Amino acid sequence: MIDLVEPLRSGDRRALARLLTAVENERVGVQAALTALYPYTGHAWVIGLTGAPGTGKSSLVTELAKVYRSKGETVAILAVDPTSPFTGGAILGDRIRMRELSGDKGIFIRSMATRGSLGGLARATRDAVRVLDAAGFDRILVETVGAGQSEVEIARAAYTTIVIEAPGLGDDVQAIKAGILEIADVLVVNKADRPGVDSTVRALRTMLELGHPVSREQMVAHHGQAVKVETPTTPNHDFWLPPVIRTVATEGEGIVELVATIEAHRDYLTQANRMHRLEQQQVEMELVDRVRDELVKQLFSVLPAEKLREVVDQVQARSLDPQSAVNQLLAFQQVNVAK
Amino acid sequence: MIDLVEPLRSGDRRALARLLTAVENERVGVQAALTALYPYTGHAWVIGLTGAPGTGKSSLVTELAKVYRSKGETVAILAVDPTSPFTGGAILGDRIRMRELSGDKGIFIRSMATRGSLGGLARATRDAVRVLDAAGFDRILVETVGAGQSEVEIARAAYTTIVIEAPGLGDDVQAIKAGILEIADVLVVNKADRPGVDSTVRALRTMLELGHPVSREQMVAHHGQAVKVETPTTPNHDFWLPPVIRTVATEGEGIVELVATIEAHRDYLTQANRMHRLEQQQVEMELVDRVRDELVKQLFSVLPAEKLREVVDQVQARSLDPQSAVNQLLAFQQVNVAK
């Protein structure tokens, strides 16, 4: 599979597609290719977009891609679907709307679904982004449907994270939640021509105020702009205040402002060593995640299946407590020999 | 600390409080006590309650506790606060409303906050529930504020999980989300005397319909009742359809129905080996979680801090790829000697 790296670098789309499939299916041998292409990563600006079904995510992604293309930039779209009985297939259905982008060689669209665990998907997403990055795309748009912990995990692969809302979606069934707002660099209220948009914008701003250590006055003064604010309590630190942007993607409204805001956020990150620190955190989190998965995988590969069943039975029967059961399981641990 | 187990069993509240503090602070020696008290667990019915701030969770918990007390049952309330800038302190402030329960020896109230990780809190919650269970309480109400992944983790310690909503909370800023509905055995719309209650109930039912493999007709026919439904696609399997119950906790309205529903869910679980299977799953998940944490802790305890920094730097500089970095870190792994 390592022989696909050179074709990938010279723009071969079949090599790209095959590598992405290998990443998605955790195919043997893909790791050697990932190792070989890793030095070529770090060029693309990775933008994460998340929002509940019905917020018009795909239209927004399509419009963003069109603006980037008009500037001569190449764009890869990675639609990640953390399949669940609630959301399964939502993203794939939306692909149809992106048809207008097809035929353009500067655009590449790819869907990726959950095979196993959420952790596996987060890992596959990070690796797929690297493949696209090494393939030379200027912008990578990682789109995911907002349905829980998944978008937070997936957002960790992005530099600029955009959270999309829409007014009056299913009455009060909204995907707005604290955890999501904490990862947002930019908030978009799409379908802003619908009734209830003001109340949605207001609600988002209220939640932002709760979540950021700046005064209400600063928040009001700077909302909707890409600014950094120093606060009395944190004089040596500044914040990016996530602006709330109104768009009507189907009409192309607000898209230019959104693109400008993404650029402003990129400028912000590339100043004062911030990008270096962000990437450092992302790498650290990724390594710890991978080490954790690897250790568990190693242990369970040597642990006889009946041993786990046996201790679970004993814990249920109250003849063994959980910690003693854990100690018994850990006894099967083997030393990993580094290669 | 193991000497506290006998007093705990004979109703000594100081021993109980000291053990819970030891669990919360992961005090050395608490494990021996947990091992000693574990055989005495399995008596209490553990009820999880989660909902966003403002849904009236604490009032509802208070009313539930009063009903159980009137039936002569003892009640422990464990209020778990996954502290975050968005939710910090919410639960502790609510404690004041529970004052009317004080003075009753059959009630025990305890708050628990995050010290470190969410994983740590989920673990501490499970252990605290065991301490309360061994202390002989009939009902353990585990209350947590809905703010992300945390309530899902914490719900894993409960047998009956109740998700609480309220109409028109902060316009459309609602904590309703797919992940939460997936863990709900019972849905409560509290503050049901407020405007918008019908739309909240309708929205919840719509989400329930999406999430359960039963027809809309079955869903409509059985909603609000505690029933099991066989479906054509899963003829040998039945489902608990989470009923949606309207309450006005401050007026005591709907509480008797809620208590009856919790009993119905308990009856459902205790039939056809279901409780055994649920507990089996919970034990298995807990063991895997604990093994994972333990393995990572072991590795990082022997890994020199500068080694992690070094590989992160190399990955950032693109001179080392993530998987090779993971292999280098895993080389520090040591064999655990079982005791």
List keywords for this structure.
homodimer; 339 residues; alpha/beta; Rossmann fold; 7-stranded parallel sheet; two-stranded antiparallel sheet; 14% strand; globular
Describe this structure in words.
The structure is a homodimer of 339-residue chains. The first copy, chain A, is an alpha/beta fold and 339 residues long. The first copy, chain A, has two domains: 41-271, P-loop containing nucleotide triphosphate hydrolases (Rossmann fold), CATH 3.40.50; 274-339, no CATH class. In chain A, 47% of the residues lie in helices and 14% in strands. The first copy, chain A, contains 14 helices and nine strands. Chain A has helices at 5-9, 13-24, 30-37, 57-70, 90-94, 118-134, 150-155, 178-183, 197-211, 216-222, 255-270, 274-302, 305-316, 322-330; strands spanning 45-51, 75-81, 107-113, 139-145, 160-165, 186-189, 228-230, 238-240, 244-246. In chain A, strands 3-2-4-1-5-6-9 form a seven-stranded parallel sheet, sandwiched between helices. In chain A, strands 7-8 form a two-stranded antiparallel sheet. In chain A, strand 2 (75-81), helix 5 (90-94) and strand 3 (107-113) form a beta-alpha-beta unit. The longest helix of chain A has 29 residues, at 274-302. Chain A is globular. The model of chain A is unreliable at 84-94 and 170-176 (pLDDT under 50). The interface between A and B is large, with 82 and 83 residues.
> How many structural units, i.e. domains of chain A?
2
CATH topology call of the largest domain in chain A: Rossmann fold
- Relative strand content of chain A: 5-15%
Q: What radius of gyration of chain A results from the CA coordinates?
A: 22 Å
Shape of chain A: globular
CATH-defined superfamily of the largest domain in chain A: P-loop containing nucleotide triphosphate hydrolases
Q: Largest interface here, residues on each chain?
A: A-B, 82 and 83 residues
Which strand order does the major sheet of chain A show?
3-2-4-1-5-6-9
